Amino acid sequence: MDPVNFTGREILEMALRIEENGMKFYGDASKASKNEKVKKIFRNLAEEEAKHIKIFTDMKKLMPEETVAEGFDPYITEASLYLRAIADTEVFASSEEGAKFAEEVGGEKEVLDYAIGMEKDSILFYYEFLKIVRDRDREVLDGLIDQEKSHLSRLSSLREELFGRSR
Fold this sequence. Notes:
By secondary structure, the protein is mainly alpha-helical. It has a single domain, classed as Ferritin (Up-down Bundle), CATH 1.20.1260. Helix content is 77%, strand content 0%.
């Protein structure tokens, strides 16, 4: 069996799914939160995810459509479905869990720690793709990683500003 190779377009589709899940998660968490500061952080995170959706959608529009080669291995299709499922379940949980999290969250520090964890998970997810993406599509993946690193950096800076350096 050949190794699984994803196109830049396929990776962007998964990135969009991750960002959409994140936006919904943070939006629902914002609506459910009773603490105004926590509500504002969640709302800002949802807005950041919406910006990423726009960026990734614009990137996807520039990618050419590609068709599957004849004799395509069904195991590759299975692997593709598996990775898409991971994008839906492992990086961001369901929106219902976002509302539940907002009800249980202890404060801004916990919200930021959670968001930082989700951004780290996104980055790790994309780094795993570096092993299986076609060489010509690495640039797309590098761009996604850079976007997520930027988001992580901003969240980490905010956390440090509000609560000092974490140990």
